[in-house]
Amino acid sequence: MTPVSSAQPGALRDAWRTIVPDLDGADGPLPPLLLALTFVTGLVDSVSFLQLGHVFVANMTGNIVFVAFALAGTRDFDLWASIIALGAFVLGAMLAGRIGFAVRHRGRHLLLVVAAETVLVLATCAFTWHYGIPEAGWERDLVILLLGIAMGAQSATARQLAVADLNTTVLTQTLAGMSADSALAGGSGGHAGRRLLAVLTMILGAFTGAALVLHAHTVSTLVLATALLAVTALVTGSTARTNRRWTIPK
Which one of 8, 50, 176, 195 has the fewest beta carbons within 10 angstroms of its own beta carbon? Predict the structure, then answer.
């Protein structure tokens, strides 16, 4: 009987296959593209949390908890901001869902959503460049709305694409799976490299975003996010014309 440990690729090999995937494989080029979107999530949430009043535009678990904190009377959390973020996220997810059901091609689905996300974040860049980073009022609410729709669309698209352990916005299940399936827990350690890579990518994105917010300019964080989204859209566009097996929805 083959030992479990030798039957599975090592974590480094698994991470490498995520970064440089088999283009004829089950997910084609999708894994590194979703990693890029994970980095964008870290950038955008650093702006929303540090500059828009302790609110997330991608991590809805946090916002739901913040709503409860605000209702309980905690002053550090804005109830209205969290509600706007939740509503915008749901709206973005619904719109992306309709795209996914209408476009039965994973590459074109990702392309359409990332292109729309790029426009939304670019609009946020232009707005904040003109008005500055709003701390309250309709200006702040509009920024939360635009970013929330973008992140909702991204999260729903990652879910519909169904690339294992790469949902781009939430890492709770990724951490749980990595721990529960680890050798220390008696598991096989499957996808350990990919899961760890997703966590590190989110950390790096949030670190980069926070560093730019604190030591440069908040708009520069959004500019970087827009640039990464644009590159992701361009790369996706170059592969979206194929009909290889990875393009078929799961």
Answer: 176
